[in-house]
Amino acid sequence: MRRELTTVRRQFTLLMLVSCLLCSALAPITTAEPTTQTHGLSITPLRQYLKATAGTPAQSSLTISNLTAKPLNIHLSVQQFSLTDYTYNYQFTQPKNNWLRIDTPNITLEPQHTQTVKYNLSVPAKTTPGGYYYTLLASANLASQGIDSTIQAADLLYLTVNGKLSYTSELRKNSISRFSFGRPFTYHLDAMDTGTTYFFAYTTGTLHGWSARPATTSAAHMLVPGTIHSLSGDITAPVLPGIYSASYGYRTDSGQTIMRKNLVVFIPPWSVAFLLALLLIVGSLIRKQRTHKSRTKESNLS
What we know:
The protein has helices spanning 2-26, 269-301, and strands at residues 41-44, 47-52, 58-66, 72-83, 90-93, 100-102, 106-109, 114-121, 130-144, 147-161, 169-176, 179-180, 185-193, 199-208, 216-223, 228-235, 242-252, 257-266. With 302 residues, the chain is α+β, with helices and mostly antiparallel strands. It has two domains: 41-161, Immunoglobulins (Immunoglobulin-like, Sandwich); 166-269, Immunoglobulin-like (Sandwich), CATH 2.60.40. The strands form four sheets. Strands 2, 4, 5, 7, 9 and 10 form a six-stranded mixed sheet that branches. A five-stranded mixed sheet has the order 12-18-17-14-15, with no helix packed on it. The protein has a four-stranded antiparallel sheet with strand order 1-3-8-6, with no helix packed on it. The radius of gyration is 32 Å and the shape is elongated.
């Protein structure tokens, strides 16, 4: 009987060693991505969030910096921008109005110098309240090693015309990974801004169960009227295997919350190895018991 227990213990130790190696092999490998910093033309701030009253002139400014080793003749212009569905890539077009006028559209900057440029904002009376989106673009020609190139920097202006504004959205599509073998549960959301101006959404997700971890919340995602934005997030895996209820969705800074629920299954690699080891031990004990009974029966017959 002691030999049988020793054999079982050896088999269990071997299987646990294999499971540890398996977990190590399946663990994600992360590497640091190299970062690069370009030097040329700089504009600050990169984004402006302004509010204006229709019929009332306003003024703001931006700062241009020449980070090159040569003087730059810089031209400033105004464009409008929109965002594409799902990816939210920028699309720039010529402005359909003349609400923005730059005081000094052409400036010359010496190397490593900066200059503040003012611009005037004039929204016509009776303009529909809501969001309007512009780009203040700084451009300059730069010659380097006999090659002429154009360098640019942009300031994105999110303009809200005051009035009766609507901050609403709807969830067009949602999904979540139903099974996890050690990694977080990833969910995807397609959210559409159905209101009249932009606002920010924060994805959030959590599991409900006996070893679930606290909820996780993402950084802010901007939603722009009339467009669909693809959002995603991760829910931290629980400690123990099992079936859990996942709640995931987003909340907005205007107070709207949209959530969805699904059942998910967590099966970490170590639990599979443990189950196999347990089945092997039980099977080995059953075979030993059958062999012992068979020998006892043969001994009694003889």
